[in-house]
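hey m, so remember when u said the tokens were messed up on ur end? i reran from scratch. heres the input so u can diff it against urs
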Amino acid sequence: MPFRLWTPEERRASLDDALRHWREGEDVWVYGYGSLVWRPDFAFEERRLATLRGHHRALCLWSRVNRGTPECPGLVFGLDRGGSCRGVAYRLAGRSVPDYFPSLWDREMSTGAYLPRWINCDTTHGPVRALVFVMNRDNPAYIRALPEPELLAIVRRASGRYGRCTEYVVQTAQALRAAGIRDARLERIASLLEADPDTLPES
């Protein structure tokens, strides 16, 4: 499968496009559904539980750097079409946007696998329009739902610059649980990985 990191110029162009309607100094909401729940890497003014409709959390993105390698890719979360997703919405002060968004783009848009979109989310204190990174199904790193044994085998094998893929999946499940968010499918996968993080199928 083709794999290429975006250039700094491509990431900058994507960022500028996402912020083309942003007014300087205006606060911005960012939606987190995976590692942003437990490692946002930015200061925020407010944090709310939030529901995004029309997409669901899934291990649908090959990871060849952070949680895998080109030779042995792992899987990380994306927002795939259909259903809904419970996550966290962060409000960033408008003055912080120029400082934090370039590093957010370096993190989330390193391969262009996501589509940055402004989408209404339901929160505990009313709706907000948040920046959401949804899965780009046209990207070669996208993978459709896998049978559970195959998914577990991929996760158990893979490790990248940020550590083992197993740790990433389990930590995400733990963070969601701590936030009061229930994701039954993820909890099942995480419980299997916690109970047996290493065993691979014989075939």
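this time it looks ok to me. Helices lie at 8-18, 35-38, 97-108, 148-157, 165-178, 184-195. if urs says something different then somethings off w ur setup not the seq
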